[in-house]
Amino acid sequence: RFMEIAPLVVVTSPIIYAGTGLRVKRGSSYHSLCEMGVHLKVKELFTFLVDFDGGTFISQHQAGSLSAAILSWAETFDFSVFTDVSKKDWSNLIAQVHEPDKQPVAVNGLKNTWCVSYLVGGRILIVHIVNTVEGT
Protein backbone atom coordinates (compact mmCIF):
# COMPACT_ATOMS: atom_id res chain seq x y z
CA ARG A 1 0.00 0.00 0.00
CA PHE A 2 1.20 3.51 -0.76
CA MET A 3 -0.08 6.72 0.77
CA GLU A 4 0.87 10.02 -0.83
CA ILE A 5 1.22 12.87 1.63
CA ALA A 6 1.84 16.58 1.33
CA PRO A 7 2.19 18.32 3.63
CA LEU A 8 0.30 16.42 6.37
CA VAL A 9 0.03 12.74 7.28
CA VAL A 10 -3.50 11.51 7.86
CA VAL A 11 -3.77 8.18 9.65
CA THR A 12 -6.89 6.94 11.41
CA SER A 13 -4.95 5.25 14.24
CA PRO A 14 -3.23 7.01 17.16
CA ILE A 15 0.30 8.06 16.16
CA ILE A 16 3.42 8.76 18.20
CA TYR A 17 6.92 9.69 17.17
CA ALA A 18 9.18 7.24 18.99
CA GLY A 19 12.65 8.47 18.07
CA THR A 20 13.15 5.73 15.51
CA GLY A 21 10.31 6.88 13.27
CA LEU A 22 6.59 7.28 13.00
CA ARG A 23 4.69 4.64 14.99
CA VAL A 24 1.02 3.69 14.80
CA LYS A 25 -0.93 2.06 17.63
CA ARG A 26 -2.61 -1.11 16.52
CA GLY A 27 -4.30 -3.05 19.27
CA SER A 28 -2.18 -2.73 22.41
CA SER A 29 1.19 -2.15 20.73
CA TYR A 30 2.85 0.34 18.41
CA HIS A 31 4.20 -0.60 14.99
CA SER A 32 6.23 1.27 12.41
CA LEU A 33 4.36 2.05 9.23
CA CYS A 34 6.84 -0.11 7.29
CA GLU A 35 6.08 -3.06 9.57
CA MET A 36 2.43 -2.55 8.65
CA GLY A 37 3.23 -2.50 4.93
CA VAL A 38 2.54 1.23 4.53
CA HIS A 39 5.06 3.34 2.62
CA LEU A 40 4.73 7.10 2.75
CA LYS A 41 5.54 9.00 -0.40
CA VAL A 42 6.13 12.69 0.23
CA LYS A 43 5.49 15.11 -2.60
CA GLU A 44 8.54 17.11 -3.60
CA LEU A 45 8.81 20.50 -5.27
CA PHE A 46 10.23 20.59 -8.81
CA THR A 47 11.18 23.81 -10.60
CA PHE A 48 10.89 23.85 -14.40
CA LEU A 49 12.96 26.25 -16.52
CA VAL A 50 11.69 26.04 -20.09
CA ASP A 51 13.44 27.59 -23.10
CA PHE A 52 11.21 27.84 -26.17
CA ASP A 53 10.77 30.22 -29.08
CA GLY A 54 13.10 32.88 -27.63
CA GLY A 55 11.53 32.94 -24.18
CA THR A 56 12.25 31.42 -20.78
CA PHE A 57 9.30 30.19 -18.73
CA ILE A 58 9.58 29.15 -15.07
CA SER A 59 7.03 27.15 -13.09
CA GLN A 60 6.91 24.86 -10.07
CA HIS A 61 5.01 21.63 -9.52
CA GLN A 62 4.64 19.34 -6.52
CA ALA A 63 4.72 15.64 -7.26
CA GLY A 64 5.76 12.32 -5.77
CA SER A 65 8.31 11.66 -8.53
CA LEU A 66 10.20 13.32 -11.35
CA SER A 67 8.05 11.61 -13.99
CA ALA A 68 4.83 12.74 -12.27
CA ALA A 69 6.17 16.30 -12.09
CA ILE A 70 6.97 16.33 -15.83
CA LEU A 71 3.48 15.12 -16.67
CA SER A 72 1.97 17.76 -14.39
CA TRP A 73 4.07 20.44 -16.10
CA ALA A 74 3.15 19.27 -19.61
CA GLU A 75 -0.57 19.09 -18.81
CA THR A 76 -0.81 22.49 -17.10
CA PHE A 77 1.69 24.72 -18.94
CA ASP A 78 -0.10 27.66 -20.63
CA PHE A 79 0.97 27.38 -24.24
CA SER A 80 -1.70 29.82 -25.46
CA VAL A 81 0.88 32.60 -25.90
CA PHE A 82 2.34 30.65 -28.82
CA THR A 83 -0.34 31.36 -31.41
CA ASP A 84 1.70 29.88 -34.27
CA VAL A 85 1.83 26.40 -32.68
CA SER A 86 -1.20 24.15 -33.15
CA LYS A 87 -3.09 22.34 -30.38
CA LYS A 88 -2.07 19.10 -32.09
CA ASP A 89 1.60 20.03 -31.63
CA TRP A 90 1.01 20.65 -27.90
CA SER A 91 -0.88 17.35 -27.59
CA ASN A 92 2.10 15.68 -29.21
CA LEU A 93 4.28 17.09 -26.43
CA ILE A 94 2.27 15.17 -23.82
CA ALA A 95 2.69 12.01 -25.90
CA GLN A 96 6.47 12.62 -26.03
CA VAL A 97 6.60 12.93 -22.23
CA HIS A 98 5.50 9.28 -22.03
CA GLU A 99 8.11 7.99 -24.51
CA PRO A 100 10.97 6.02 -22.89
CA ASP A 101 13.63 7.75 -25.01
CA LYS A 102 12.31 11.22 -24.08
CA GLN A 103 12.96 10.98 -20.34
CA PRO A 104 15.12 13.57 -18.57
CA VAL A 105 18.79 12.86 -17.99
CA ALA A 106 20.82 13.99 -14.99
CA VAL A 107 22.98 17.05 -15.59
CA ASN A 108 26.64 16.12 -15.06
CA GLY A 109 28.20 17.60 -11.94
CA LEU A 110 24.89 18.73 -10.41
CA LYS A 111 22.62 17.09 -7.87
CA ASN A 112 18.85 16.83 -8.36
CA THR A 113 18.99 18.52 -11.76
CA TRP A 114 17.82 17.08 -15.08
CA CYS A 115 17.44 18.17 -18.67
CA VAL A 116 15.22 17.00 -21.52
CA SER A 117 14.23 18.36 -24.92
CA TYR A 118 11.13 17.91 -27.02
CA LEU A 119 10.17 18.82 -30.57
CA VAL A 120 7.11 21.11 -30.72
CA GLY A 121 5.89 22.44 -34.05
CA GLY A 122 9.26 21.72 -35.63
CA ARG A 123 11.12 23.67 -32.91
CA ILE A 124 13.15 22.49 -29.94
CA LEU A 125 11.74 23.02 -26.45
CA ILE A 126 14.41 22.58 -23.75
CA VAL A 127 13.41 21.85 -20.16
CA HIS A 128 15.70 21.99 -17.13
CA ILE A 129 14.22 20.53 -13.96
CA VAL A 130 15.49 21.09 -10.42
CA ASN A 131 14.30 19.22 -7.35
CA THR A 132 13.87 22.32 -5.20
CA VAL A 133 14.20 22.64 -1.43
CA GLU A 134 11.10 24.38 -0.09
CA GLY A 135 11.27 27.32 2.26
CA THR A 136 14.41 28.92 0.90
In short, what is this structure?
The protein is of the alpha+beta class and 136 residues long.
* Helix content class: 10-25%
Alpha carbon gyration radius: 20 Å
Output mean pLDDT. 79
Largest sheet: 5 strands, antiparallel
Strand-pairing-aware structural class: alpha+beta
**Helical run tally:** 2
β-sheet strand percentage: 35-45%
Please give the alpha-carbon distance between the first and last residues: 32 Å
**Apparent shape:** elongated
Are there runs of 5+ residues with pLDDT below 50, and where? 1-20
Strand order in the sheet with the most strands = 7-6-10-9-8
Q: How many strands appear in the DSSP assignment? A: 10
Task: Tell me the series of helices and strands, N- to C-terminal.
Answer: EEEEEEEHHEEE
Structure commentary:
With 136 residues, this protein is α+β, with helices and mostly antiparallel strands. The chain has helices at residues 66-76, 87-97, and strands at residues 2-5, 15-17, 22-26, 29-32, 39-42, 44-52, 55-63, 105-106, 113-120, 123-132. β9 and β10 form a beta hairpin.
SSE inventory with pairings:
Blueprint: E1 2-5, E2 15-17, E3 22-26, E4 29-32, E5 39-42, E6 44-52, E7 55-63, H1 66-76, H2 87-97, E8 105-106, E9 113-120, E10 123-132
Parallel strand pairs: 1-5
Antiparallel strand pairs: 2-3, 3-4, 6-7, 6-10, 8-9, 9-10
